[in-house]
Design goal:
The protein has 313 residues and is α/β, with parallel strands linked by helices. The protein has helices at 3-16, 22-74, 89-95, 103-122, 141-160, 182-194, 211-228, 242-246, 294-306, and strands at 81-85, 126-133, 170-174, 202-209, 259-262, 281-284. The protein has a 6-stranded parallel β-sheet, with helices on both faces.
Length: 313
């Protein structure tokens, strides 16, 4: 008897026995629910098998198309600075059937090596990634501890060994570093110092970052600087302009991103670089970050190349 037939038979039996034995009815309904859950679980497993088999069969075509698109992208003007919101780690892990804490974030951390190589291969000079938001710090303790451990390992590895195919990156971490767990804050400061003289791609990692926090901190720093110059309070407003505020942002002395990519299907920036993104081009993709491929990245760059940038004019 199939699982569907058994489930239906159990449900019908429960109805016929309802008046005679409420407790037996509850047992039969519970059994029917368990059979239904087993069916759904089996269906999900079969879907995963079909997806993996389809991916394996399509791999040669994917590689061919990726090489072709890479050549076309290299022939046109490229962005100098790309920023990526690394989103969808937990949803990817759930879809892949990985339930260990941090499984998706661990795979996402490995994917960063590939992104660095793709950028280096195209000659992109600066990459910014949003790896941990200020709001993420409020996640359950066990989940946050695992995420922090992954970030510590990844930052340390990037500082010690460049990913194959790329030069050692110069790493810069920005955000409210003082609000990070101590081990992560210490690692951030250490890798910045260790890679300061590297001549590879500039890798900016946003940790404990919030766009609102950045603007608030910039205003505070500007006011403190004016006070240190003995500017009277009544005259401070006259010294506040875009250039003055920009000089106190976390990203001061760095270029604004030409292209911002967000994975996972969310079509918003969620407070990422609100000042710096005023003239950026945006690209949103449904692909979860751990499943992001070079082909997806090249498509984002190609879309950027197809747009006419006017910078507000």
């Amino acid at each position: 008897m199939s699982a569907a037939a058994l489930s239906g038979r159990l449900v019908r039996s429960s109805h016929s026995l309802h008046l005679r034995s409420p407790s037996l009815q509850a047992v039969l309904e519970t059994a029917a629910a368990q059979v239904g859950a087993a069916r759904r679980g089996l269906g999900l497993q079969l879907a995963r098998v079909r997806w993996r088999a389809g991916s394996a069969l399509a791999a040669p075509l994917y590689a061919l198309y990726t090489r072709r698109l890479r050549r076309r992208v290299r022939a046109r003007p490229l962005p100098n600075h790309v920023a990526v919101i690394l989103d969808g780690n937990r949803r990817w892990a759930s879809l892949a059937g990985l339930h260990q804490p941090g499984a998706g974030h661990s795979r996402g951390a490995d994917k960063l090596d590939e992104l660095l190589c793709w950028c280096a291969g195209l000659g992109i000079g600066e990459l910014t990634v949003w790896a941990l938001s200020g709001e993420n710090l409020a996640r359950p303790r066990a989940e946050l501890d695992e995420l922090v451990a992954i970030l510590v390992r990844k930052l340390t590895a990037l500082a010690e060994h460049a990913p194959a195919g790329s030069s050692p990156p110069r790493i810069r971490v920005f955000g409210r570093i003082e609000s990070l767990p101590r081990e992560l804050a210490e690692t951030a400061r250490r890798v910045q110092a260790a890679t300061a003289d590297n001549r590879g791609l500039v890798l900016n990692v946003a940790l404990g970052y919030s766009g609102r926090d950045e603007l608030v901190d910039a205003v505070r720093k500007l006011i403190a600087a004016l006070a240190a110059e003995d500017v009277p309070a009544g005259e401070m407003a006259a010294h506040v302009d875009a250039a003055a505020l920009e000089s106190h942002l976390y990203t001061a002395e760095h270029s604004d991103p030409d292209l911002i990519v967000r994975t996972s299907g969310e079509m918003r920036l969620s407070g990422f670089l609100p000042w710096q993104s005023s003239h950026s081009e945006f690209y949103f993709t449904d692909v979860y970050w751990p499943a992001f491929r070079e082909l997806d990245f090249l498509r984002a760059v190609r879309t950027y190349q197809q747009r006419e940038r006017r910078f507000g004019r």
